[in-house]
């Protein structure tokens, strides 16, 4: 039995190697000024000449974009002060350039902030996997440092719906593109969902504590305005360490909404610095001046003082809120936390906007773990308020067990806010 099992594995490996050899030349197409472009069937991609390119040669296709961005170090360094979203326009340029040469490409791995270019290549490959037919495909994921991760996928009839993945990483070292890492594996998980997400995953050892072994790729496009609305209103809150999009609430009844978690998340957007109420191993309890706490919450919620006092622990004799931070044990945020995605929008007669928000949970290979309707009220001064959240009932909803309920009853020593630096005034 062991010999038979080994032989089966060997056949799969040989088949994958042969498929890779036969598929590489179909991985990309090159526009030609001399020939009338034809179309690759079912993809709509211009294809006059097909040729093999190494990863280094592929990077040369966008050297001009890289060199133009390299004059601004923040555009090419993932560790810089500039956020990922500041670099997104340059990443978009590279994705579109790769798309013009017939490649399937998307932005950084597990970010999914841009629509994939040439998604038909990946959709067609997924169909072939389901049909257990021979196929190959290549996908480029442009990283924050403007290099890329290249995924080469291979399947065949003999592999019976299994997918062999070669993952290589290219980085720009100075002005030269270099492959810095490359390895292959047979995907332990390969799932293309009805929501248009592709999840694939390599095997990881028991008790593995390194980076997540999964990749989540949105293949089907989203409306660009939905993406912008998500980045502006929803992603800054997200699903980590708060329950804002996990419970029903509205301005008439805030229900179980945890304003302490939101105070920590929203503080930087009001005071333009990180919250001075830092996390500790066991959680620290602070006395936050009433004016400071009110300002953060009331900037983003239409709530009066009396209601806010009733939803928190307010001590009128000192005019402060008693606030315990989450501890490292109930921090409730990890790489495995789902991310939100706005899938539709509706403008209401009263000027508010209703967003349909879905939780994408790669760890469970779910393109929609749950959904809710979030109502936003844009304000005349350019600000906005969160109006309500309503969970959309569905038999497919899963329990949000990534969410850790904070153990605020286990209070540690009280730290006076008077010992902390005063928050700066807004201009």
Structure description:
It is a single chain. This protein has nine helices and 21 strands. It has helices at residues 2-23, 55-60, 63-70, 84-100, 119-131, 224-234, 259-271, 290-300, 305-310; strands spanning 29-30, 38-39, 46-47, 49-50, 104-106, 135-142, 148-155, 164-173, 176-186, 189-192, 197-201, 214-218, 249-250, 285-289, 314-315, 320-324, 339-347, 353-360, 371-378, 384-391, 414-416. Strands 5-6-7-8-9 form a five-stranded mixed beta sheet. It has a five-stranded antiparallel beta sheet with strand order 13-20-19-18-17, with helices on one face. Strand 2 (38-39) and strand 3 form a beta hairpin.
Blueprint (SSEs and pairs):
Blueprint: H1 2-23, E1 29-30, E2 38-39, E3 46-47, E4 49-50, H2 55-60, H3 63-70, H4 84-100, E5 104-106, H5 119-131, E6 135-142, E7 148-155, E8 164-173, E9 176-186, E10 189-192, E11 197-201, E12 214-218, H6 224-234, E13 249-250, H7 259-271, E14 285-289, H8 290-300, H9 305-310, E15 314-315, E16 320-324, E17 339-347, E18 353-360, E19 371-378, E20 384-391, E21 414-416
Parallel strand pairs: 5-6, 14-21
Antiparallel strand pairs: 1-4, 2-3, 6-7, 7-8, 8-9, 10-11, 11-12, 13-20, 14-16, 15-16, 17-18, 18-19, 19-20
Helix pairs in contact: 7-8
